[in-house]
Amino acid sequence: MNHVVTLQDAITAFADFIEPTNAELDAIEREMPVILADVDLLDAHIVTLDRTPTEVDERRIRRARRRALAARVALVNRATGASMPGGAA
Questions:
Q1: CA 27, CA 13: separation in Å to the nearest integer?
Q2: What pTM was computed for the model?
């Protein structure tokens, strides 16, 4: 006889291990500006999927792309600055 285990039983058995750790939550918080900038860039691209981009659309995409790149640079600079001895960047 085969025993069938429901998915809920399998998930709740490891429920304590599913939650993110404090370190993972801190990493998400540090990366949130990059995530939000990427969402804005995707939104700008999604608007133009079903039509030819207008000049305003192109400007919106360029601005969103610059914000996304600036957010990534800021994240890398913070990470690099935190790992340099003496706080030198």
A1: 26
A2: 0.68
